[in-house]
Amino acid sequence: MKKILQQAFDFLLFSNVFMALCAVAQGLVTFYLAGAKPVASVTWLLFTSTIGIYNFSILLTRPKNPEQSQYRRVRWFFSHYRLMVTFTIVSLLSLIPLFFLMSTESRILLIFLAALSFAYSIPLFSLGEQKFGLRNIPGLKQFLITLVWTMSTVLLPVLEAQHIHFTTISMRDTTILIAKRFLLIAALTVPFDIRDLFEDQQSGLKTIPVAYGEKKAYIFCQVLLAGYVVLLFLFRGNGFNTDFFALTITVALAGWLIFKSTWEKNEYYYFFFLDGVLILQYLALLLFHWLGGLL
């Protein structure tokens, strides 16, 4: 029984299904905070695109001997190579009908985000004999990941809520949502680069930990989260409501988890606990809203 549960858990994390659920949860956070009903086509698109793009990126960066990799995720992924290739192809193909269910504005956004996502991993550029993708350009790795996540989980739900449900969401509220989400996602991406510090140094990737060191990277994360709380406080709406406390508590938890994340932590810590904050945020909003209704 324990072995079966372990296998199921590994599949959930290392096939990027859990990461896809994180994207869906953040999309639902946007719908909730915007006061709009969730749009099924958006949640499905977030789910399948996350699986497809993350798996595609892993397939492109396959090491020579994946079975000898120091990372459990890499060993698991390529030991299930055929399954993951099939999973990736099905996920990417499912985006075609979902794309045509979107509004014109959303389609333009999706084309832009897809171009960024694939250019991130594919070595489209060359300098002499060296080929590289956007992720290899100093300072771009974290920014691109954060930008794609923010635009897809904030702007896409906002556009579709306005198009389908005719929900009125002001430019001011949308900008604030984008700013807060950008700070949160940016803070959560840095610990993964701290974990991969030595590998990134060897491959020449100029991440924040590589450029400024591990300690400053941790401080940078806390500054980003502090900025999130400041925005939350300044634009809290009608006083200190349940949404304010739910978001503040989850951000505080994220700060604590980042502080505790050192390179010795195993991959489950990063892919479940750290990324899980993105799901927990939505669950906390629902819980605090329910508790507020009881009081």
**Total beta-strand segments:** 2
Task: Please trace the helix and strand order, writing H or E for each element.
Answer: HHHHHHHEEHHHHHHH
Mean pLDDT: 87
Query: Proportion of β residues?
Result: under 5%
Please state the overall shape, judged from the principal axes of the Cα atoms: globular
- Please compute the radius of gyration using only Cα atoms: 19 Å
Report, as a whole number of angstroms, the end-to-end distance.
Answer: 42 Å
Summarize this, please?
Helix content is 77%, strand content 2%. It has 295 residues and is mainly alpha-helical. A two-stranded antiparallel ribbon has the order 1-2.
Verbal overview:
The structure is a single chain. It is built from 14 helices and two strands, in the order αααααααββααααααα. With 295 residues, the protein is mostly helical. Strands 1-2 form a two-stranded antiparallel ribbon. Helix 13 (242-260) packs antiparallel against helix 14. The longest helix has 28 residues, at 267-294. The model has no long low-confidence stretch (mean pLDDT 87).
Task: Provide key terms for this protein.
295 residues, mainly alpha, 14 helices, 2% strand
Task: Reconstruct the topology from this structure.
Blueprint: H1 2-14, H2 17-33, H3 40-60, H4 72-79, H5 81-93, H6 95-100, H7 104-121, E1 125-127, E2 130-132, H8 140-164, H9 171-195, H10 197-203, H11 208-212, H12 214-234, H13 242-260, H14 267-294
Antiparallel strand pairs: 1-2
Helix pairs in contact: 1-4, 2-3, 2-8, 2-14, 3-5, 7-8, 8-9, 9-12, 12-13, 13-14
